[in-house]
Design a protein that fits this description.
By secondary structure, this protein is α+β, with helices and mostly antiparallel strands.
Length: 729
């Protein structure tokens, strides 16, 4: 009898608590797909706007409303530095500001800002602005020198420099169809993001010149014209003729240009350009097309001649230099070089005359970014992962801050809270700004002591922007993947999750080089649309398999010569893990990804047709022979060197294996994964009597941006709903 009464009380209490929980959830607003995509900026944690250090001290500035505030790393309150009205004093009426713009400090008393086609200097003492530079409206690829005394820019395929007083100098005149000056080259691989490089004192400008006249043109259709026209671009496909690059050096004092044209095959890669502090020498990391050897070459900037090769590196699989040399100021013959030679991205101290001095970082973790050095250059500050244990690799999901002693290489971890930390070092080297978040901390911005890492001031504790939304939970999991390696994963459950029920699954994948999807940051690195998808009644799952970033060289190089093979096996291990969960309906699983993830999606639908009932592949690489030289040959070599690898990963040849429902999506003006990929796959399907679904996005390049992205994800999720038999709640 007593047992029965206790059971009734327990059930009543559970019902009451359950009702309270449901009422609390029902009181929240739904996260719509429209809001998740178009208003995402308002659904991520608040940040301190405009936060940066003022040169030379531990003073920082930040933006509040229409005011620029000045603060100190100590406990004092922030004070007003300037208002929008102050900045408007002295600028042209047409450039009048409505809010504080992005600023770039020149020294402790002056900063620059851009408004319209003009660059202005604001003097904090005078509380007024003055015109510094005028930049033409059609200028592209703008790049200013350190002192902001001149701005390099391109117009068409030629390079120009703008000076104070509306003066413009044309540096090159040979720009034409196939001759490109001052722009990024090698399709922005190997750390290349721009095409101009100022010397430290601004007296010389190095710039890329690319001759791609020998590269076969590719055409995409522009339907915005009547009749439609075709846009031509040069696209070197794997194994085909590639472009040729040289490096020009323009001397602003003489008005003359010399060219650095390294010896060797003309289709090698000129990567990671850096200047010496003496303004006289340029360093190029010269990578061969096979990507198994590079030399660090030092050139005379006045003659373009090779001074000498500083050192070389080799790797039997691939090398991918991504960082220029970082020269020290106090000892200008010394510089920092990034290398994976010991299996992890680590830093090495070199001397121009002596060679290798010492490793600066070592161990089973990797450096992700250099923050800076203190003025005396005793310490180097970096961002890096935590220690990575192969049996428990959660450290790969972290980004922590470290202090490295340059004289010994001794490393001290400054941040202890698990999460993703990003640092900014003060000009006097005494403090760090630490912006961080984790799965449990939406966001914090703190000032740290640069020696101990202890917080000395909290600038912002971000509220959870999703607190009033009906969203589920995000959890980290680990899965044993191919070769027995442990992989990091993420599961999103709906807000109404019940462990005794079973849910269909959407797996979102990329699993390619240089991408990590699962991080210990706000919502685990997930996109907001995934939270909306979970609320439709799904488990949303992501797994970082072999080849993905921040797990070290050996973990990445498993994919060599077989892109998408081991990675597919990893994702199938993930699928098996999901099926082992009692709350997963293993008969209703969908897979979705874009670009490399599109390749993975298609490959999974073909190689394991019983695993996923539905797939949506966007911008998918279907045949690596159709992809560009710089990426493909690094990982796959050429089809002549690796015929078996290319055959095994050629997806159109396996179209007959498709059994589930597959939606292929592509952009008709895609210059990254050209439309020929999807068209060749569709042709194979037609030839073999296979019936996938297909949708083109006219006018878009690689992926769909802007308001049309709502259309894209509505289509993707509705397609999955329909074919998995899910009716969104």
């Amino acid at each position: 009898m007593e047992h029965s009464r206790l059971m009734r009380r327990t059930l009543l209490l559970a019902a009451l608590l359950g009702g309270t929980f449901l009422s609390a959830q029902e009181a929240k607003t739904k996260l719509t797909l429209n809001d998740a995509i178009l208003k995402g900026w308002s659904l991520y944690p608040e940040q301190v706007r405009g936060l940066q250090w003022v040169p030379g001290a531990s003073n920082y500035c930040l933006t509040k409303g229409d005011s620029l505030m000045l603060g100190n790393a100590g406990r004092g309150a922030d004070r007003l530095l300037a208002t929008t009205a102050d900045l408007n004093k002295g600028i042209l009426p047409k450039d009048s500001l409505r809010r504080i713009p992005a600023i770039d400090w020149l020294d402790a008393d002056r900063f620059t800002f851009r408004s319209g086609g003009h660059v202005y200097t604001f003097h904090t003492g005078k509380k007024a602005s003055s015109l510094r530079l005028s930049i033409p409206d059609d200028a592209e690829n703008e790049d200013h020198d350190k002192a902001y005394n001149q701005v390099a820019f391109t117009r068409g395929n030629n390079l120009f420099i703008a000076f104070p007083g509306d003066s413009i100098v044309q540096v090159t005149t040979d720009g034409a169809d196939g001759i490109v000056n001052g722009k990024s080259v090698h399709r922005e691989e190997y750390g290349i993001t721009k095409g101009t490089f100022w010397s430290p004192d601004g007296s010389k400008l190095a710039f890329y010149r690319m001759d791609e006249t020998m590269v076969t043109p590719y055409y995409v259709e522009d339907i915005s014209t009547t009749p439609s026209t075709f846009k031509k671009f040069r696209y070197p496909m794997a194994g085909q003729t590639s472009h040729q690059v040289t490096l020009g050096v323009y001397d602003l004092r003489t008005g003359k240009t010399v060219f650095i044209d390294p010896e060797g095959p003309k289709d090698h890669y000129l990567t990671n350009i850096s200047w010496d502090p003496d303004n006289r020498h340029v360093q190029i990391i010269l990578l061969d097309r096979k990507t198994d050897h590079f030399s660090v070459n030092r050139y005379d900037a006045s003659t373009g001649q090779l001074v000498r090769t500083l050192f070389e590196e080799r790797d039997p699989k691939w090398l991918e230099p991504e960082h220029p040399l970082t020269f020290l100021k106090k000892t200008p013959t010394r510089y920092i070089h990034w290398s994976q030679r010991d299996g992890w991205w680590h830093l090495f101290l070199y001397d121009v005359n002596l060679g290798l001095v010492r490793p600066l970082t070592t161990g089973n973790w990797l450096v992700k970014d250099i923050i800076g050095t203190d003025p005396g250059e005793r310490f180097l500050y970096v961002e890096g992962t935590a220690e990575i244990d192969p049996k428990d690799p959660k450290g790969a999901m972290e980004t922590q801050l470290y202090r490295i002693e340059l004289n010994s290489g001794k490393a001290v971890r400054l941040t202890r809270e698990p999460g993703t930390h990003h640092g900014q070092l003060s000009g006097d080297g005494r403090h760090l700004i630490d912006r961080w978040s984790s799965l449990t901390v939406p966001g914090r911005t703190e000032v740290l002591d640069a020696m101990s890492g202890k917080p000395v001031k909290t600038l912002l504790v971000s509220k959870d922007p999703l607190a009033d939304k009906q969203v589920g939970t995000v959890e980290f999991v680990q899965v044993t993947g191919e070769n027995g390696n442990v992989l990091n994963g993420r599961i999103i459950k709906p807000s109404f999750f019940q462990s005794r029920e079973q849910y269909p699954v959407i797996v979102y994948t990329y699993n390619g080089p240089h991408v990590q999807l699962v991080t210990n940051s706000f919502i685990g690195g997930a996109s907001l649309w995934m939270l909306e998808a979970a609320e439709r009644g799904y488990i949303v799952f992501t797994l970082d398999g072999h080849g993905s970033s921040n797990r070290g060289r050996d973990f990445e190089q498993v994919i060599h010569r077989q892109l998408g093979v081991t990675e597919v096996k990893d994702q199938l291990h993930g699928a098996d893990y999901l099926k082992s969960l009692p709350y997963v309906d293993g008969s209703r699983m969908a897979i979705h990804g874009w670009s490399f993830g599109g390749h993975m999606t298609t490959a999974l639908m073909l190689r394991s047709p019983e695993t996923f009932k539905v797939g949506v592949a966007g911008g998918a690489v279907q045949d690596w022979k159709l992809y560009e030289v710089m990426y493909t040959e690094r990982y796959m070599d050429t089809s002549e060197e690796n015929p078996d690898g290319y055959t095994a990963t050629n997806l159109p040849d396996h179209a007959q294996d498709l059994k589930g429902k597959l939606l292929l999506i592509h952009d008709n003006m895609d210059q990254t994964v050209v439309p020929q990929h999807v068209e060749r796959f569709l042709k194979s399907c037609v030839d073999k009597g296979i019936y996938p679904d297909f949708f083109y996005y006219p006018g878009h390049e690689h992926n769909v941006r802007g308001k049309d992205r709502v259309h894209l994800y509505t289509q993707i999720l509705d397609y999955i709903d329909e074919h998995l038999g899910v009716t969104p709640r």
